[in-house]
Amino acid sequence: MKTLAIVGASLAGLSAARAARTQGFTGRLIIIGDEQHRPYDRPPLSKDFLLGTVTVEDLFLESDADELEAEWMLGTEAASLDASSRTILLKDGRAVQADGIVIATGARARQLPTLAGLSNVFTLRTLGDAQSLAPELVPGSRMAVIGAGFVGAEVASAAASRGMEVTMIDTNPVPFAAQLGSEMGGVVAGLHAANGVELISSAVIEDFYSGEGNVTGLRLAGGRYVPADVVVVGIGAEPNTGWLEGSGLELRGGVVCDAMGRTGLPGIVAVGDCAAWFDHAAGTHRRVEHWTGAMERATLAVEALLDADAMPKPAKPHYFWSDQYGVKLQFAGHSAGYDRLEIEVGDVLTHSCLAVYYREDVPVAVLGMNQPKLFTKWRRNLTAPVAATSGSQGADTSALAGAAVLS
Fold it and tell me: Which of 228, 236, 334, 390 has the least C-beta neighbours within 10 A?
């Protein structure tokens, strides 16, 4: 392989570039990104960056140890892919032909079309988003967060710590239940209540009120009016795969891949938030939007790209973390289908505990709240699914899922 092109100057893209050099690739390395910035760390955007405790310079991911010798093509989006010739056409008219391609174009925040163009409505996915939102965290102002996912929850935590009056509005009966289950989802909901944030669950928004280009409030089914000076929409993310339409790649909720990131077309792999890898434990494809996944899976995908005979590796249990109100939440595994939950250490009322999820007496997931050492021990002991060697491209993808965590 003489030329390797990575589409996406993200954590996943940078991880793929590092993996390529580490695994002995010495050819031409091209990294394409739609933002002007080199790769930066996204998790702090909804935490420390909003609070002003880190700067833009603190976010950049490259280090002095990186010797990528890469060609950076920044500030331009990929427009299409001719898979037969492995040619990437960019929106500025340039074309990049490569022997191998890593697709790492990530995901974008879902929007509410009703609120498009209003000046006090924000999503949070990029550095630009965070730079726009940060000045709006003004003590005494009112923030409405639509969607109680982890990004919305972290924004609510930052805003409340700045002295804002915060209301989170969610359509689900219990927030975070998809990732943590109903019981521990309720515990995290209680953490918000304990810090003065009102959570309205099972809510239906019937109308928005606006004036002079701003949202002034919203009305819920049942008649309740929620005033707002700032609105943050945190309703998940959609994979950036539109540019791949017509390429021949299978796109179903993401770029469909096997358990090593291989697509159905030779010489092309996908990693990060845009990629739906086959999960042997679940028997389906999953799009996992987590920081550690972007790091670890890039290494596997590059190995599969450079070595067509590379064997699948045992998958590590999924892992993500969140910081809310000074409490560090860490989660590993999958809670879906658990039949027993045990609080092994601590007390949920103090939000310092370790909860283990069991399925038929086998631990399948663990949640730590301010229990980093014990959590790390349990995380290591979780049973990881055993990778199979059979093909998986035909597996059902109806359960594609990804927690909304910045990565």
Answer: 390
- Cα-Cα-Cα-Cα dihedral sign, residues 39, 268, 72, 91: negative
pLDDT score, position 178: 86
Does the pLDDT value for residue 391 go beyond 50? no
Please state, in angstroms and rounded to a whole number, the distance separating the CA atoms of residues 312 and 309: 9
Cβ neighbours of residue 115 closer than 8 Å, sequence gap 6 or more: 121, 208, 215, 231, 233
Residues 6+ positions from 164 with CB-CB distance below 8 Å: 137, 138, 139, 140, 141, 142, 143, 230
Q: Which amino acid is at 32?
A: I
pLDDT tens digit string along 244-281? 999 999 999 999 999 999 999 999 999 999 999 998 87
Look up the pTM and report it: 0.89
Q: Residue 83 in contact with residue 249, Cβ under 8 Å? A: yes
By C-alpha distance, which of 403, 406, 110 is closest to 238? 110
User: Measured between alpha carbons, how far is 200 from 174 in angstroms, rounded to an integer?
Assistant: 10
Render pLDDT for 153-167 as a digit per residue (tens, 0 to 9). Answer: 999 999 999 999 999
User: 106's torsion region: left (phi>0), alpha (psi -120 to 50) or beta?
Assistant: left
Q: Residue 155 has which token pair?
A: 């924004």
Contact 232, 144 (CB under 8 A): yes
pLDDT per residue as tens digits for the range 222-247? 999 999 999 999 999 999 999 999 99
Strands (E), 224-359: 225-227, 230-233, 237-239, 255-256, 268-270, 275-279, 284-287, 319-324, 327-333, 340-347, 352-359
Burial 167-188 (b: 16+ CB within 10 A, else e): bbbbebebbbbbbbbbbbbbbb
